[in-house]
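Exercise 7. Given the components listed, write out the predicted structure of the assembled complex. Treat all entries as one system.
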Amino acid sequence: MSVRYAEDFVVGTEYRFGRWPMTEDDIVAFAKTFDPQPMHTDPEAASAGQWGGVIASGLHTMAVYQALVVEAVWADVVGKAGRNVNARLRRPVRPGMVLTGKAMITEVTLRPEKGDGILAWRAELVDEASGEVVLIVDADAVLYLRPAA
Amino acid sequence: MSVRYAEDFVVGTEYRFGRWPMTEDDIVAFAKTFDPQPMHTDPEAASAGQWGGVIASGLHTMAVYQALVVEAVWADVVGKAGRNVNARLRRPVRPGMVLTGKAMITEVTLRPEKGDGILAWRAELVDEASGEVVLIVDADAVLYLRPAA
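Answer.
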């Protein structure tokens, strides 16, 4: 398996995400553990509420972002340690939506004295059907530099 | 049930969180769905890695933050819509840790013309045993104002 290190990333490279269908069952199950509020966990109560039905916990949408960015960007990177995750929730995510999107590398800072590099990126999750942005993430992580041969 | 609205929050109020034990099973299960990297999902491979065992996905730690803040702050608030979640992952979270912490209201901006208010807060999650901070979150949300009687 090929392995990528900090210096293998290039500012401006864009990574396309796969697809993640959001089901009512998944939305309710995630929220029962991590965000137990009726707008996320109770379809009957939520149908009379401001959104007309359950919407996903923002943390659920952020976790889906993570699943998609791991698949698209991190699969062949070892030793990553996440540092900052700045998320802007832009629109409610509803059952039946399919989330997809992209990430772009915005900054690569190599630190040879530490043997690592800092990678920053911006990602967007969109509702596939409408193309509307539901989440914007600016994040960074520390990656290893390639070990000396 | 009493219900709280935007104008019921006061800058400087501190909310203490409950306790959330982090188990290896939960760490692996969360990561298999949302962050499938060996440092989170494979205890054997991770034991030879940089952390000496699995560590929680940063998104898992953030989801635990959400569970604790919902319990401590949002239980009697209706109509909240999260906007921004800015998370700084400070230390690895390991199986056996118990996470707890607190949140403090940092800003309350009422918008009578829109019938809502924006609430901002800072939260910290700490490892209960050591007191070390593992996560800092700055976040905000839109809340309803109290309806006219």
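Discussion: Chain A has one domain: 6-144. The first strand of chain A starts at residue 14 and ends at 16.
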